[in-house]
Amino acid sequence: MQSLADRLPSPQTTVRLALAAFVLAWVFGPHALRSAVPIWIAFAVGAGLELHFLVRALGPSRVRLPDRGPQVVDR
Hints:
Elements: H1 4-7, H2 11-28, H3 31-36, H4 39-58
Helix pairs in contact: 2-4
């Protein structure tokens, strides 16, 4: 049985989701939010998210993929 801590997303994932929600709220939200937050802040947050996704995609994989070749039992 998994504990609650095992089922919660990592803090990094939570921060990414919060930043993406902020950008979406800024784009589609009320005019008061768009007038209170400068466009460069929303742009910097969005660009930072995209850059983080790119770096993670190009970096070394932390998950080891299973060997898809013939198994010992198949030989």
